[in-house]
C-alpha cells in the first residue's frame, strides 16, 4: 500500500479519510476469505519528533505524536498495523526518506517538495541559508529494496528504515553538490531569498509553498523545512533491519555530485 495524499499543510482531520480510513479498508481486504500479507510504505518522518532529537533512533522505537496531518496519518497507520500484527496479520512497514532522483537517468518526481526546492532555487539562481538536514535516497534503490524485502519470507512482520545513509545532508552541503553537478547557486539569508521568490511569482515551481514560508520563520525557513532543522534531527537513523536483509547500501546510493549530474541536467 503506497498511496497517500501528501500535503504538509493540511490537518490530520483533512487527510484522515483518504489516508487512514483507506488503510483500514486495506486491512479488511487482507483479512477477508484468507489472510494476505500487507506491505505498507510509511515515512521515516514519523521518527522526527522532539523525543528523538540528538539521539539514535532505530526501526522499532515508540512513535510519539507528530505535528502535521501527513505525519500523524502515517503514525496512525503504523499503530493500526501494530494492532493487526498482534491479531495475526503479517504487516511489513517501509519508511523511506525524501525519495530522490534515479541514479542513472536522473528522472524525478516533479511534485516532490525537495525537487521543487532545488528546481525553484536553480530558477532563482539563489538558495536560502538554512540550518536543515535532508535525508535523501535514490528512487531506484528504494523501489528495488522494497521489492526484495517484500519477497523475502525472513523479512516478514518487520519495520525497515529504507535509507541509504543513517545521517542527513546539511542543506549548504547539498547546495555545493548541486553547483559541482552543473548548477549555479549563490546563498543568501532567508529573508532576502523569500523576497526574491515572492517577486518571481507563480512561474517558479516553489511558489506553491510560499504561504508556508512566513515572515517570522527566518531562522528555520518554513513550516515544511522546520521539520528538518538540525536541532530537531536524530543523531543517527538505525538501518539494522535493512542491512541485515540486504547488506550495506551500495556506495553510489549516497548522494554526491557525480550521482546528481543527470538529475541537475534535466532541471536546467
Give a nutshell description of this structure:
The protein has 268 residues and is of the alpha/beta class. It is built from eight helices and eleven strands.
Q: What kind of sheet is the major sheet?
A: 3 strands, parallel
User: How much beta, percentage-wise?
Assistant: 5-15%
User: Which regions have little confidence, pLDDT < 50, spanning 5+ residues?
Assistant: none
Shape: globular
Percent range of helical residues: 25-40%
The end-to-end distance, rounded to whole angstroms, is 34 Å
Helix/strand order, N-terminal first: HEEHEEHEEEHEEHEHEHH
Which strand order does the major sheet show? 1-3-8
Number of strands: 11
Number of helices: 8
Mean pLDDT score: 91
Gyration radius (Cα, Å) is 19 Å
Secondary-structure-based class equals: alpha/beta
Q: What are its keywords?
A:
alpha/beta, two-stranded parallel ribbon, three-stranded parallel beta sheet, single chain, 8 helices, 268 residues
Amino acid at each position: 500500500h503506497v498511496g497517500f495524499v501528501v500535503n504538509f499543510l493540511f490537518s490530520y482531520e483533512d487527510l484522515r479519510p483518504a489516508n487512514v480510513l483507506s488503510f483500514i479498508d486495506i486491512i479488511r481486504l487482507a483479512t477477508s476469505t484468507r489472510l494476505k500479507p500487507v506491505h505498507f510504505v510509511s515515512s521515516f518522518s514519523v521518527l522526527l519528533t522532539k523525543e528523538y532529537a540528538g539521539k539514535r533512533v532505530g526501526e522499532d522505537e515508540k512513535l510519539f505524536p507528530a505535528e502535521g496531518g501527513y505525519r500523524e496519518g502515517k503514525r496512525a497507520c503504523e499503530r493500526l498495523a501494530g494492532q493487526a500484527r498482534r491479531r495475526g496479520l503479517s504487516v511489513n512497514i517501509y519508511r523511506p526518506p525524501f525519495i530522490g532522483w534515479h541514479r542513472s537517468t536522473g528522472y524525478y518526481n516533479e511534485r516532490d517538495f525537495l525537487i521543487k526546492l532545488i528546481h525553484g532555487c536553480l530558477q532563482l539562481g539563489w538558495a536560502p541559508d538554512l540550518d536543515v538536514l535532508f535525508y535523501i535516497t535514490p528512487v531506484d534503490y528504494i523501489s528495488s529494496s522494497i521489492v526484495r524485502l517484500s519477497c523475502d519470507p525472513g523479512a516478514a512482520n518487520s519495520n525497515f528504515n529504507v535509507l541509504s545513509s543513517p545521517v542527513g545532508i546539511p542543506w549548504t552541503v547539498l547546495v555545493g553538490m548541486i553547483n559541482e553537478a552543473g548548477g549555479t547557486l549563490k546563498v543568501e539569508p532567508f529573508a532576502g531569498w523569500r523576497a526574491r521568490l515572492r517577486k518571481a511569482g507563480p512561474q517558479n515551481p516553489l511558489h506553491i509553498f510560499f504561504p508556508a514560508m512566513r515572515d517570522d520563520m527566518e531562522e528555520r525557513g518554513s513550516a515544511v523545512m522546520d521539520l528538518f532543522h538540525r536541532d530537531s534531527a536524530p543523531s543517527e537513523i538505525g538501518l539494522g533491519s535493512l542491512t541485515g536483509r540486504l547488506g550495506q547500501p551500495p556506495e553510489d546510493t549516497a548522494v554526491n555530485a557525480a550521482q546528481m549530474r543527470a538529475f541537475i541536467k534535466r532541471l536546467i
